[in-house]
Specification:
Layout (H helix, E strand, L loop, with lengths): L2 E7 L5 H12 L4 E3 L7 E9 L7 H4 L3 E9 L1 E3 L8 E4 L7 H9 L3 E5 L8 E2 L2 E2 H6 L9 E14 L2 E8 L5 H11 L4 E11 L10 H6 L2 H6 L13 E3 L2 H8 L14 E6 L1 E9 L3 E7 L5
Parallel strand pairs: 3-12, 13-14
Antiparallel strand pairs: 1-3, 2-3, 4-11, 4-12, 5-6, 7-10, 8-9, 10-11, 14-15, 15-16
Length: 291
């Protein structure tokens, strides 16, 4: 079983619990997801199976689209509804334009300090392990890019935004930072991932729907591996060239761009290669089995 499943993760389960359910449904040995969603978040969780796990990094690095609801005036330990309330204050309603102006100021490149309740590691331990013990670890601000941020709804004290962001962007921190610019506090009340790497919502499937399908219907939901790397140009190889690459040899190929990564095909998708000037085409990552 090699391919990509666009799971619509439901609320209340972890990303790991979700992939374990998929693993049992498809009886697949090798499986992984491409971007964690907390139990309180729902939406698109791309799940790689078999050889597709070799290309997971390209979806981890991809832009993602979220719809986020925040509540002004309440701060929690985890920046969402799961944590304990640490600050609760009365906040007068803002005008739509005032809120919109602050929200739009976050579009583009900015710096963000990752939250303590995250899976980022310090000395081999996730930060949330320290946070649960009340230990605060200094964190470096990281550059993030919001290519789009829009105000979808505002019914004080709740506001909803739709965000297209680079990898490593924390929506909980974004909501807190928006509130800080408004001279108040906030936390996330709802979070849904709508898209990863441009995949469409209509291609997602829930666990419940999968469980109600027969095997042939389930298999139709598995996308081919090369959809994960469509940002790279395609290159077709002869059988001889394919054998050379599989044996770790450099393949001569005219007209290629130096350092460019290519999707490789020999009838079917076989993996990724990279062209190195004055050498030739070398292996970047190959499938064990063809898609």
């Amino acid at each position: 079983m090699n391919g990509l499943l666009l799971l619509d993760k439901s609320l209340g389960i972890s990303s790991n619990q979700a992939i374990q359910k998929v693993k049992r449904l498809f009886s697949v040995k090798k499986i992984g997801h491409t971007g964690n969603l907390d139990p309180l978040a729902s939406g698109m969780l791309p799940i790689c199976m078999g050889d597709a796990t070799k290309f997971a990094q390209y979806l981890l690095d991809a832009d993602k689209v979220y719809e986020v609801e925040g509540c002004l005036g309440i701060q929690t330990t985890t920046a969402d509804t799961e944590g304990d309330v640490v600050v609760q204050e009365s906040v007068d309603a803002f005008s739509q334009q005032e809120l919109l102006s602050v929200i739009e100021s976050f579009q583009g490149i900015s710096e963000q300090i990752p939250p303590m309740f995250s899976a980022l590691k310090h000395k081999g331990q996730p930060l949330y392990h320290y946070a649960l013990k009340g230990i605060d670890i200094p964190r470096q601000a990281r550059s993030i890019h919001l290519s789009s941020i829009k105000l979808i709804n505002y019914q004080h004290p709740f506001f909803t935004i739709r965000v297209q962001s680079s990898k490593g962007t924390y929506m909980r921190t974004l909501v807190e930072d928006i509130a800080q610019k408004l001279s108040t506090v906030a936390h996330v009340t709802k979070l849904r991932r709508l898209s990863t790497a441009g995949f469409h919502q209509q291609d997602m499937v829930t666990i419940n729907n999968l469980e109600s399908m027969d095997k042939s219907e389930q298999l139709k939901k598995i996308l081919p591996m090369d959809v994960m790397v469509m940002q790279f140009p395609e290159l077709h190889l002869t059988e001889e060239q394919t054998i050379q690459l599989k044996h770790g040899q450099v393949v001569s190929y005219d007209g290629l761009i130096s350092q460019q990564i290519y999707r490789l095909y020999q009838d079917d998708f076989i993996g990724l290669g990279q062209y190195v000037m004055k050498q030739g085409l070398i292996v970047k990552r190959l499938c064990q089995h063809q898609s």
